[in-house]
Structures are given as structure tokens and as C-alpha cells.
Write a structure and sequence with these properties.
The structure is a homodimer of 149-residue chains. By secondary structure, the first copy, chain A, is an alpha/beta fold. Chain A has a single domain (7-146), classed as Cytidine Deaminase, domain 2. Chain A is 44% helix and 17% strand. Chain A has 7 helices and 5 strands; from the N terminus they run H-E-E-H-H-E-H-E-H-E-H-H. Chain A has a 5-stranded mixed beta sheet. In chain A, helix 5 (109-114) links the parallel strand 4 (96-99) and strand 5 (118-121). In chain A, helix 1 (7-22) packs parallel to helix 6 and helix 6 crosses helix 7. Chain A is globular and about 40 Å long. In chain A, 51% of the residues are buried. Chains A and B meet through helix 3 and helix 4 of A and helix 3 and helix 4 of B.
Chain lengths: 149, 149
């Protein structure tokens, strides 16, 4: 299926990931847009707030606040969604997800598609490099964030 | 598979649901236990905090804070988990979920079992009655909470 996305919002997800990295946190950022306009953005806050559910996508959805509907929205994320975030995308009825990269983490793309979500994978080199650097520098934190023992 | 659960923690999940109901919120409560001891508890805070990701289970996991591992934990919830909460249970590796009721909402039990989670459904009359009353009183809020339009 041919879809479209806004490269500027991929860049914004990267910038939020970089902000979190510079704060000592997990570098995953996310943006929620409707009709091209940002209605929420966020980044992983496991370290910053001691909050295990604050993955980038979740923090973004929290910051977007209560929505009557997620019709017409697109969720941008710097890294492929984990099962928590993928389940949330399905539950909320978010129709379109733009994944900046799934080289360092992935696997839930088919689950999302099986539930009717349109998934684009960009292959953004900035996000790949940042995430790779983080995993090399902080493997214990990364494993905690994805619940790998 | 024969499993076991603590009826006192089902009661605690109900009490947390009732607390949220009395605050004008969605009446869903949750408790996380390890080796029989509570390590986190919470309830839906969509109304109280304007937070769409704060389902009962999510608020409980947030309050439990960062965990190196969820091995040996059991998550009690007054209502069957939605896809967000079910995805989170799988992602976090929570091995056992005790669902007080799935009469008013359900459907993700098989997904959880397919990912190796042991699921008990209690059929707690207090939780069934409270949830039924809430849905009758506040259908718009309930539909927003489960993203039904």
C-alpha cells in the first residue's frame, strides 16, 4: 500500500530521542500528528521519571491528552514499537505508524499490520546510529527497558 | 493448568476500582504482587489526571517503578485487560494475570495465553456490579476509555 509521511516529523522524533539521550535516558522519541499537525510529542522517561511505562510512544500519547478519537492520526516513532506500544496503537485505533528504524529493535510490525495498522519503515540513519551508540554504552539500561534479562 | 491466587488481592483491586469510581473516574483497579506481597497498586486515572494511558494496570505498573525483572509477579486487575494492557503484560514478561471479571469487557485472554501468560478469571460479583453501574451511568466516558466511537 502506498502511504505518505512527513520527513520533518521523522526528524522531530529523532530530535526528541536525542534530547532524551542527552538527559541520560533511553533515546526514543515520538510524535503524534493529525492532518499534518503535531498534537503530542514525547520521549522515553524511564530514567528521567523512574517510569517503566513511559516509552517514547506512551509518553507522546500521554502528552497528547484525552482524545475522543484517534481517527486520522499518525504516530511517528524513532524506534520500532515494543509489544506494549504496539498493543496501545491497536487499542487506541491509531491507523498509521511511521517507524524511523527497526534495525536495533523490531518484530511487531506484522502484529500491527494484522490488526489493520498501516506501517511505514523509513530506515533513518540518524536514529539507527543514535540507538546503536546507546545500546553499546548502556546495555543494562537498554535490557531493562525491553525487559530482557 | 492449576494455578492459585490470593482472594485478598482481588478484593484490593476492587477497592482501588471503587476509590476511582468515587473520584468520578473509571472504576478499574490493579495490584502487582511478588511472592504474595504487593509491590505496586493503582487505578484508572483518565479523569483524575487527564491521562489516556493510565488504565488501572498501567497506573499500577508505573507505581511499582523500575523493575529489573517481572519474574515471579502476578498482576491482579478488576477488569479484563485491553490490548494496551495485554501488550504491556507480554512485553514486561509478567507470567500470571488474575482477572476479577470479564463480563463487561474482555477478549484478550487468548492473546495473553498464546504468549505464555497464565490467566485466571475469577468472576467477582462486586467488580461485575460496579463496572456495570459505571457503564450505565457514564457511557461516553467508558467508550472514550476503550476507544470506541
Amino acid at each position: 500500500m502506498a502511504t505518505s509521511f512527513d520527513p520533518a516529523l521523522v526528524t522531530r522524533a529523532y530530535e526528541l530521542a536525542l534530547k532524551s539521550y542527552r538527559e541520560g535516558g533511553c533515546p526514543i522519541g515520538s510524535v503524534l500528528a493529525r492532518d499534518g499537525a503535531i498534537i503530542g510529542e514525547g520521549h522515553n522517561r524511564r530514567v528521567q521519571q523512574g517510569d517503566p511505562i513511559a516509552h517514547g510512544e506512551m509518553d507522546c500519547l500521554r502528552n497528547a491528552g484525552r482524545q475522543r478519537s484517534y481517527a486520522g492520526t499518525t504516530l511517528y516513532t524513532s524506534l520500532s514499537p515494543c509489544m506494549m506500544c504496539a498493543g496501545t496503537i491497536v487499542q487506541f485505533g491509531i491507523p498509521h505508524v511511521v517507524i524511523a528504524e527497526n534495525v536495533n529493535f523490531g518484530g511487531n510490525e506484522d502484529f500491527l499490520r494484522s490488526r489493520g495498522v498501516v506501517v511505514d519503515v523509513v530506515g533513518d540513519a540518524r536514529c539507527i546510529d543514535l540507538m546503536r551508540r546507546f545500546i553499546a554504552e548502556q546495555p543494562a539500561l537498554w535490557n531493562e527497558d525491553i525487559a530482557e534479562e
